[in-house]
Input
Amino acid sequence: MSDLVRKVLSLAAKDVRCELRTRYALNALLMFAVVTLVVIGLTAGQGEHSSHMHASLIWIVILFSLMQALSGGFVKEEESGTADTLRVYAEPRVVYLGKLLLGLALAWALLIVLVPLYMILMDLDVNSISQFLLCLLLGSTGIAASTTLIAAIVSRASIKGALFAVLSFPLLLPVLLSAIFATEVVLRGGEWNDMWPYVKILIAYPIIVVTVSYMLFDYVWEG
Output
């Protein structure tokens, strides 16, 4: 195991232990998702809804739940004073990759809870579970990749919540729209060829974001 991988896993393990101890992000993630789903279930009901509506509702809940949970990762480091310690003892690329792993873990944990609950509350029938899960995994990965960098940028700002929302929306719009359209194709029983253009964007988006973030994180973290 390379030294970089060992350091990244150590930092991610530290963040996971802290999260399991405080459950700050996890509780925020689950509570927001569950409350939103219950409200949607009570208001929309289990009647006939279009595939576009289902796809939009699923991704709106995923987006705002992840933004609620992942925005505080770097903020907690700054507020607790551990950010300066990280700057001294960990390379910027290690910090970024460690936080990215935590964000991905939270995003995928959300899917495990949210998707079955949504399918039950909204009586959603999915023809191709594998394609459905592919859209969910790729889309949530892209959202987690973007919000990790944005959270680092706004962590030392005075108005963190408003700035996070302002910066996030234009960056997340391509992955959000692609995820909605790809999910809609799956839910209406479309062919793989219909979904592939959106899947290509969902694959390329996190690769581009992670690559650019990895290259620029030194300036964001040390600036």
User: Anything to note?
Assistant: The CA atoms of residues 36 and 126 lie 21 Å apart.
